[in-house]
């Protein structure tokens, strides 16, 4: 069988090289298609030959199945942060202190200060063995499984001149483009938006499911090597070695000698950083020689051999002219500040986001206020404060609107929520148009059209709801201005093609508030046809894993609206899929019918989510807490002592994963 092992290793090596070409060097040499083919080939060989399993195989990048809260690990060398400076005078002071402290020649390495999540990676014999977050600097979370999914981090190093064991530290980053896509998706689901790529990246790194991490396309830059036998005495030279071993080292890293060179670097990057794909918030200056670093040593908090220079947050002062309100597809109303136009980092700003009523009250905003506008890591500028000394006595306080700006209906707000809604989902135009737009999107019905298409058709009174799409004739569409016959036909064809979109996606496409893609999938499995779902009570809905009160209420409310039921019935007549397809239904069993099962602990054979799905697939119910109604506890490792005690006192049997798998075999 040795040749199989050789074949596996050769494929792993080849795929690692392609990953490096693509993610570190940005110059791929094979097509994505060929890459996927090779990856599949490797994956198949590995499945046939589990004896050659390797956690660092490129197939493991997609995310393994382990699912547990993170282990806390103590850092071998504490993870310190840097002293911050904000002025060039402070940078000069640093330079002079170093000169005085060393009384010898020295070089300063200038680097970009990446604004992400710091990470410490350990490599033993060229293999990634551990990835730990900064935590409190003394100990952090073991996020190795998640970090393995980041393509620019080498799992196995190139060459053979790396130390047997060393650490390398750097930053995990979410690129701007990924961040913007992610927020767009979250806005569609009306989920809370991430304020900046740093929060989005660190949130991603703390995800329990490495598959989600893999899907979010994180990137990395490494900037600090630690260990006993580093290749050279130069920080810069060590980084260049690290680059040869496969790490992503910023091309902006530069050795300087004089203050003039340092300032030239600072000025250049203060502008040029705006063209980078990831966020940066300053420059880091480091003494190059490791011996000199040791001689300078540390203060109680920071190294004396390095310092950060932070870029100015870009700020401007302008006048708040008015506040307007936007209505989204689910009726959510968001306030927007209209500002007197002002230049901010190269663009003219006229609007700023105000988030919700609480934020307006926090700022105590008045019309005509002089407001501070900032473009931090965020995409949309925000108002960070008010110069109240400039406020006139007659300036009116901003009161959140009581009525929908589009249809005049009084707004409502749920208990504990920050957002107001327009409840008139039947005839409020942006809600109607928004719902149709959502219905067309790729992840919903995948119909070839966007907001402009909907605007045209709605204004021409050709459509009023999603069901009307299916009565459209290309001849009617082509009569509209700017619609050629070909595009009209394409639109109608793609509407007709959408009748084969599976049930779960149709549920998502309906645009029920809080029913995103994942929830829609769970609903489709639990209620295999729309009649069952329409008949479900809130109590029945919350029995489904991950469906809470808020979602359940929203679903019940949706189907209690006659106009929604009418739309569903019309869609049904047009042949839209409103039941789970046969092949999925046929995998369902009733082996666990009537059984309520609690999952607790961590497992080896499958993830918790997979076990939850198996329980549902076999007719059982997932329950979150142990009670006298619980039939079994599916217990794994590290099941909490309180749970064990409760199970014992109530006489609920705890079964292992092996026994469970036997039950559903
Ligand atoms: S060096 C002892 N270099 O900024 C020196 N840090 O306040 C350790 N950072 O926690 C850090 N870019 O997360 C270094 N080129 C860079 C950096 C950098 C970003 C972050 C890092 C650190 C913080 C320092």
TrEMBL record:
NAD(+) binds at residues 32-36, 81-82, 111, 134, 171, 286, 310. Keywords: DNA damage, DNA repair, DNA replication, Ligase, Magnesium, Manganese, Metal-binding, NAD, Zinc. GO terms for cellular component: cytosol. The active site is at residue 113. Zn(2+) binds at residues 404, 407, 422, 428. The keyword Magnesium applies. Its cofactor is Mg(2+); Mn(2+). CDD domains: LIGANc. GO terms for biological process: DNA repair; DNA replication. SUPFAM superfamilies: BRCT domain, DNA ligase/mRNA capping enzyme, catalytic domain, Nucleic acid-binding proteins, RuvA domain 2-like. GO terms for molecular function: DNA ligase (NAD+) activity; metal ion binding. Its EC number is 6.5.1.2. InterPro entries: BRCT_dom, BRCT_dom_sf, DisA/LigA_HHH, DNA_ligase, DNAligase_adenylation, DNAligase_N, NA-bd_OB-fold, NAD_DNA_ligase_OB. PROSITE patterns: BRCT (PS50172). Residues 587-665 form the BRCT domain. It catalyses: NAD(+) + (deoxyribonucleotide)n-3'-hydroxyl + 5'-phospho-(deoxyribonucleotide)m = (deoxyribonucleotide)n+m + AMP + beta-nicotinamide D-nucleotide. Belongs to the NAD-dependent DNA ligase family. LigA subfamily. DNA ligase that catalyzes the formation of phosphodiester linkages between 5'-phosphoryl and 3'-hydroxyl groups in double-stranded DNA using NAD as a coenzyme and as the energy source for the reaction. It is essential for DNA replication and repair of damaged DNA. This is DNA ligase. It comes from Dysgonomonas gadei ATCC BAA-286. The lineage of its organism: Bacteria, Pseudomonadati, Bacteroidota, Bacteroidia, Bacteroidales.
């Amino acid at each position: 069988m040795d040749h199989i092992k050789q074949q596996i290793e050769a494929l792993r090596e080849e795929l690692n090289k392609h990953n490096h070409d693509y993610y570190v060097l940005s110059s791929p040499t094979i097509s994505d298609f060929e890459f996927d083919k090779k990856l599949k080939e490797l994956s198949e060989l590995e499945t046939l030959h589990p004896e050659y399993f390797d956690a660092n195989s490129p197939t493991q990048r997609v995310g393994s199945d382990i699912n547990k809260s993170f282990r806390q690990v103590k850092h071998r060398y504490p993870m310190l942060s840097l002293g911050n400076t904000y002025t060039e005078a402070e940078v000069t002071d640093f330079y002079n202190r170093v000169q005085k402290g060393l009384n010898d020649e020295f070089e300063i390495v200038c680097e970009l200060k990446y604004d992400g999540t710091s990470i410490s990676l350990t490599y033993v014999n060229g293999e990634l063995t551990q990835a730990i977050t900064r935590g409190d600097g003394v100990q952090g979370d073991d996020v190795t499984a998640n970090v393995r999914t980041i393509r620019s981090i080498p799992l196995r190093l190139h060459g053979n001149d790396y130390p047997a064991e060393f650490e390398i530290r750097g930053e995990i980053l979410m690129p701007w483009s990924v961040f913007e896509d992610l927020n767009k998706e979250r806005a569609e689901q009306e989920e809370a938006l991430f304020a900046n790529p740093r929060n989005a990246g660190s949130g991603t790194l703390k995800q329990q499911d490495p598959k989600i991490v893999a899907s979010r396309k994180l990137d990395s830059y490494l900037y600090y090597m630690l260990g006993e036998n580093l290749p050279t005495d130069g920080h810069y030279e060590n980084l260049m070695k690290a680059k040869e071993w496969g790490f992503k080292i910023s091309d902006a890293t530069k050795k300087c000698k004089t203050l003039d060179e340092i300032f030239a670097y600072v000025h250049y990057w203060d502008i040029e950083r705006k063209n980078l794909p990831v966020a940066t918030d300053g420059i880091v200056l480091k003494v190059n020689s490791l011996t000199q670093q040791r001689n300078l040593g540390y203060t109680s908090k920071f190294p004396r051999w390095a310092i950060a220079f932070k870029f100015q947050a870009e700020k401007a002062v302008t006048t708040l002219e008015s506040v307007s309100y936007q209505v989204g597809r689910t009726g959510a109303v968001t306030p927007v500040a209209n500002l007197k136009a002002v230049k901010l980092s190269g663009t003219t700003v006229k609007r700023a986001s105000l988030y919700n009523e609480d934020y307006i009250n926090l700022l105590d905003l008045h019309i005509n206020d002089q407001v501070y506008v900032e473009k931090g890591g965020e995409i949309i500028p925000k108002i960070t404060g008010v110069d109240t000394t400039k406020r006139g006595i007659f300036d009116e306080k901003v009161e959140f609107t009581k009525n929908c700006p589009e249809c005049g209906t009084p707004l409502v707000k749920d208990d504990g929520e920050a957002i107001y809604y327009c409840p008139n989902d039947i005839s409020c135009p942006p809600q109607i148009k928004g719902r149709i737009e959502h219905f067309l999107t790729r992840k919903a019905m995948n119909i070839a059209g966007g907001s402009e298409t909907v605007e045209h058709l709605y204004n021409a009174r050709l459509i009023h709801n999603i069901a009307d799409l299916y009565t459209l004739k290309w001849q009617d569409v082509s009569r509209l201005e700017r619609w050629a016959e070909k595009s009209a036909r394409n639109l109608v064809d793609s509407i007709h093609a959408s009748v084969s979109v599976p049930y779960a996606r149709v549920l998502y496409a309906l645009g029920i508030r809080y029913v995103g893609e994942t929830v829609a999938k769970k609903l489709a499995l639990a209620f295999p046809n729309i009649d069952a779902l329409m008949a479900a009570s809130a109590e029945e809905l919350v029995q489904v894993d991950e469906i809470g009160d808020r979602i359940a209420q929203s679903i019940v409310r949706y189907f209690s609206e006659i106009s929604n039921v009418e739309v569903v019935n019309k869609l049904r007549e047009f042949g839209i899929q409103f039941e789970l397809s046969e092949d999925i239904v046929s995998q369902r069993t009733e082996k666990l019918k009537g059984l309520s099962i609690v999952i607790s602990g961590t497992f080896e054979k499958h993830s918790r989510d997979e076990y939850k799905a198996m329980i549902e697939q076999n007719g059982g119910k997932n329950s979150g807490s142990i009670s006298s109604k619980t039939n079994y506890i599916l217990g794994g490792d590290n099941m909490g002592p309180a749970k064990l005690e409760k199970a014992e006192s109530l006489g609920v049997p705890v079964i292992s994963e092996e026994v469970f798998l036997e039950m559903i075999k």
